[in-house]
Amino acid sequence: MKIEKNTGDFDALGEDHIGTSSNTPLREDAFKLSTEEKIEIIKDDVRHIMETLGLDLTDDSLKGTPNRVAKMFVKELFGGLDPAKKPNASTFENKYKYGEMLVEKNITLYSTCEHHLLPIVGKAHIAYISSGRVVGLSKMNRIVDYYAKRPQVQERLTIQIVQELQKVLNTKDVACVIDAKHLCVNSRGIRDVESSTITSEFGGKFKEETTRREFLDYIKFDTKF
Ligand SMILES: [Zn+2]
Fold first, then answer.
1. Which of 83, 120, 143, 190 has the fewest Cβ atoms nearer than 10 Å?
2. How far is the CA of 18 from the centre of ligand 1 (A)?
3. Is the pLDDT of residue 38 over 60?
């Protein structure tokens, strides 16, 4: 498959981008348009939606909305579709020979449900056991954010985070749990304000009961500072 403007190993375009794959389903021509060209097109589309709803776009409060929404979609909410924004995955030697699991919990997560284009808001918890390399803590936040900034389903997001960290850290021993509220469930439809959704992906040693239990016990810590 030939993709313009992409020379890296872009995960989102696998051999077969079928719905059951962990890859985000993207069209082959996903990167033919520039960021600015996409914003211009989406601006017109948002204006069309608003006008169809009967809104008066000459009103001072509304006239900037199409451009604002278009920029927000392309650069922010769905910026993680752009492989150029993938965090640089530099790792370091595990100098301390720390051999236990490292857990980063309560990583703030903002994503967008791809079925309704409404927010998913939650926390991600990540753990890994070093195979000789370690990664900066904030890099884990950045990887979560990169994959969250796409139209998503929570299951796929969880798997994408684990697969990326497995690649970066060169180990299967990576786990991720996400606990998130979906505004498409909380604010409309069934309107269940209280419900949240938990997904998990356990790789390598985290498939073993004791390792998995240790991780899950750590993320229950109610850390307060
Ligand atoms: Zn939804």
1. 190
2. 19
3. yes
Name the nearest CA neighbour of 133 among 108, 167, 162.
167
Sequential DSSP letters for 75-139: IIITGGG-GGGSPP--EEE-TT---SEEEEEEEEEEEEETTT--EEEEEEEEEEE-SSEEE-HHH
User: Exposure of 20 by Cβ count < 10 A (0-12 exposed, 13-18 middle, 19+ buried)?
Assistant: exposed
Q: Which residues sit with Cβ closer than 5 angstroms to ligand 1, an ion?
A: 113, 115-116, 184
Q: Rounded distance, CA 92 to CA 1, Å?
A: 33
**4: pLDDT strictly greater than 80:** no
Q: Considering the entire predicted model, what is its pTM?
A: 0.89
Count CB-CB contacts under 10 A for residue 88: 7
Helix axes 154-169, 137-148, angle to 10 degrees: 140
> What tokens were used for 105?
């919990």
Active-site positions read 113-116, 154, 182, 184
How much is the pLDDT for 163? 97
* φ and ψ at residue 178, rounded to 5 degrees: -120, 130
Residue owning tokens 């990167």? 31
Q: How far is the CA of 152 from the centre of ligand 1 (A)?
A: 9
HSE-up (13 A, CA, CB side) for residue 219: 24
